[in-house]
């Protein structure tokens, strides 16, 4: 594995591309929106500079990583030489299926196709291709360059060779991996959505302030980040989509908190919009 393509230049796509480039891979990051690509380039180069300024990486390492990343709006061009493609777009099955159908046409026969998803089915996505054995979910966590875990979720037809390839990829990116058999929400999202939803219900019921709910879980349960500030970081619209999917597939205990629904309708999406459970 030498070349990785990342589809989607949003927060997760940028983070994956940054981490892969620092790990020595040639990276193509693709997005149909030229503005998103430019924002990704600016964001990645700023993060490289911050890492140099803080002494985390050397100047020459940052410069090499910068040169390792290409930015491309044409999907076919971006993935034609890829050994692994990691898709990182919105959590919407029709969109992901459409992308994977095109990846199947454009990529070499050996290319592994991975979806960065926190809840959706790699089996369903893989079934839209002629290579379901080479389709897998790689659930990265935000911010990618700091978070150590990648959940690897096998679809029904995912081969052991594919699992080994992405395990090796994770190791080269200095990540720990866990292998999960596909089930809605996998491991982390099932737990995280429950905790976050209950925190939202407590805040709605006036049990405590958002700040004190987060503080209680950080200091009392040793969570590195409170559930409400984490939801703001992820994006309340993204959390709402995940909760809806889990509600539909796993039942009543995942019913989205009414306050979450209200915030999304009001455009209060967390950090990305400047306001969610906190103001930014």
Automatic annotation (TrEMBL):
Keywords: NAD, Oxidoreductase. The keyword Iron does not apply. NAD(+) binds at residues 8-13, 31, 91, 96, 118, 142, 272. Pathway: Lipid metabolism; butanoate metabolism. It holds the Pfam family 3HCDH_N. The keyword ATP-binding does not apply. GO terms for biological process: fatty acid metabolic process. InterPro entries: 3-OHacyl-CoA_DH, 3-OHacyl-CoA_DH_NAD-bd, 3HC_DH_C, 6-PGluconate_DH-like_C_sf, 6PGD_dom2, NAD(P)-bd_dom_sf. It comes from the Bacteria. Residues 3-182 form the 3-hydroxyacyl-CoA dehydrogenase NAD binding domain. GO terms for molecular function: NAD+ binding; oxidoreductase activity, acting on the CH-OH group of donors, NAD or NADP as acceptor. PANTHER family: 3-HYDROXYACYL-COA DEHYDROGENASE FAMILY PROTEIN (PTHR48075), 3-HYDROXYBUTYRYL-COA DEHYDROGENASE (PTHR48075:SF5). Belongs to the 3-hydroxyacyl-CoA dehydrogenase family. This is 3-hydroxyacyl-CoA dehydrogenase. It comes from Salicibibacter cibarius.
């Amino acid at each position: 594995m030498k070349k990785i393509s990342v589809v989607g230049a949003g927060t997760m796509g940028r983070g994956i591309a940054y981490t892969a480039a620092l790990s020595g891979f040639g990276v193509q990051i693709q997005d149909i929106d030229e503005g998103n690509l430019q924002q990704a380039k600016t964001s990645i180069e700023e993060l490289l500079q911050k890492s140099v300024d803080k002494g985390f990486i050397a100047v020459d390492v940052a410069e090499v990583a910068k040169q390792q990343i290409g930015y491309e709006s044409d999907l076919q061009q971006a993935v034609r030489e890829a050994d692994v493609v990691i898709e990182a777009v919105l959590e919407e099955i029709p969109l992901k299926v459409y992308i994977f159908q095109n990846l199947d046409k454009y990529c070499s026969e050996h290319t592994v196709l991975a979806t960065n998803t926190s809840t959706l089915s790699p089996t369903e996505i893989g079934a839209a291709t002629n290579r379901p054995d080479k389709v897998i979910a790689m659930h990265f966590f935000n911010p990618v360059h700091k978070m150590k875990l990648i959940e690897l979720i096998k679809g029904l037809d995912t081969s052991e060779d594919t699992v080994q390839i992405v395990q090796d990829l994770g190791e080269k990116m200095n990540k720990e991996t866990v292998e999960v058999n596909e089930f809605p929400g996998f491991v982390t999202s099932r737990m995280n959505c429950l905790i976050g939803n209950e925190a939202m219900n407590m805040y709605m019921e006036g049990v405590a302030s958002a700040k004190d709910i987060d503080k209680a879980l950080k200091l009392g349960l040793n969570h590195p980040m409170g559930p409400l500030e984490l939801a703001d970081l992820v994006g309340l619209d993204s959390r709402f989509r995940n909760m809806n999917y889990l509600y539909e597939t796993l039942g009543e205990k995942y019913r989205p908190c009414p306050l979450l629904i209200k915030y999304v309708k009001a455009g209060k999406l967390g950090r990305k919009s400047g306001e969610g459970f906190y103001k930014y």
